[in-house]
UniProtKB/TrEMBL annotation:
Keywords carried by this UniProt record: Methyltransferase, Transferase
SUPFAM superfamilies: S-adenosyl-L-methionine-dependent methyltransferases
Record GO biological process: methylation
Taxonomic classification: Bacteria, Bacillati, Actinomycetota, Actinomycetes, Pseudonocardiales
Organism listed in the record: Kibdelosporangium banguiense
PANTHER family: TRANS-ACONITATE 2-METHYLTRANSFERASE-RELATED
Keyword presence, Transferase: yes
InterPro entries with a match to the protein in the record: SAM-dependent_MTases_sf
Protein name as annotated: 2-polyprenyl-3-methyl-5-hydroxy-6-metoxy-1, 4-benzoquinol methylase
Molecular-function GO terms, alphabetical: methyltransferase activity
Length: 196
């Protein structure tokens, strides 16, 4: 695990900084486009303090939230008072083989809120996402609308070329803008291609 990345994000969370929450209505919209049945298994990549993870749990999903920040995971666990069997938080670094620890799992929904832009090796990450998605699983990338993001936080915006990569790697079912967010929803391709 990258201690530097963990230390950076942990310091952010320890000083009270957090990513913007997603409204209940926006979550309903993304679930409608993802068309994933309640009771399915979800993986929330870069879950932070667990807001989206908890929302998905309360909508009937079995959810695993993972994050590189040990402090974020600690906060998420403290904020969670529900069954640990249906909602788990794991301290994993997706850039250092963390997703490989989930290799025997299959997910109906994988979400990536405000994190995709920060991933350095996107081809390797997308290949892992394909491997972890159930046959009809949906992959959702959530990014803020660029005009709504202050200059010091621009690094979390998914660039248009990265959106194009997502559209090449997944069968895109939706790309929409709502509530200051841009959401990409894609399905696992039937035939896996080498990540572009």
């Amino acid at each position: 695990m990258s201690n530097e990345v963990d230390a950076y994000w942990s310091k952010c969370y320890e000083t009270g900084r957090d990513f913007r929450m997603i409204s209940s209505r926006a979550i309903s919209t993304l679930l409608r486009f993802a068309n994933t049945a309640q009771g399915g298994r979800c993986l929330d990549v870069g879950c932070g303090t667990g807001q989206l993870t908890r929302e998905l749990y309360h909508r009937g999903f079995n959810v695993v939230g993972i994050d590189v920040s040990e402090s974020a995971i600690d906060i998420a666990r403290k904020l969670t008072t529900v069954s640990r069997r249906r909602l788990q938080y794991l301290h994993l670094d997706i850039e250092c083989g963390g997703l490989s620890k989930l290799v025997n799992q299959s997910y109906d929904l994988i979400t990536c809120k405000f994190v995709y832009a920060l991933i350095k090796d996107k081809p390797a990450f997308l290949l892992k996402v394909h491997q972890l998605l159930a046959p009809n699983g949906a992959f959702v990338v959530i990014t803020p609308v660029p005009e709504d993001v202050p200059a010091e936080k621009k690094m979390i915006i998914v660039a248009s070329d990265d959106m194009s990569r997502l559209a090449r790697e997944f069968d895109q079912t939706a790309l929409y803008q709502e509530h200051g967010l841009i959401c990409f929803v894609g399905r696992r391709r039937r035939v896996l291609t080498e990540a572009a």
